[in-house]
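Researcher: Good morning. I'm working through a list of sequences from a screen, and I'd like to move beyond sequence-only analysis. For each chain I'm collecting a predicted structure so we can compare shapes side by side. This is the next one on the list. No need for commentary yet; just the structure.
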Amino acid sequence: MFLPLIKVLKLLESENLLIQSSQGYLKRVSFVLGLVIGDNLELNRILGLLESFFIYFFCRVYKMHKNNT
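Model: Good morning. Structure tokens for this chain:
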């Protein structure tokens, strides 16, 4: 689902855009994605991680075994 968006973001990161201002100046503009925000399940889905809470390490942030949580 996110593959087209990822391709566009990678293209914008690798290829600079030249934008002409109303005064005639050319400006080079670069793009970089800095942050992806979402809940635990959605971020796991977007990042291609497991989407189940029945695994041993269910959170990519805390990295704690489920028996210790």
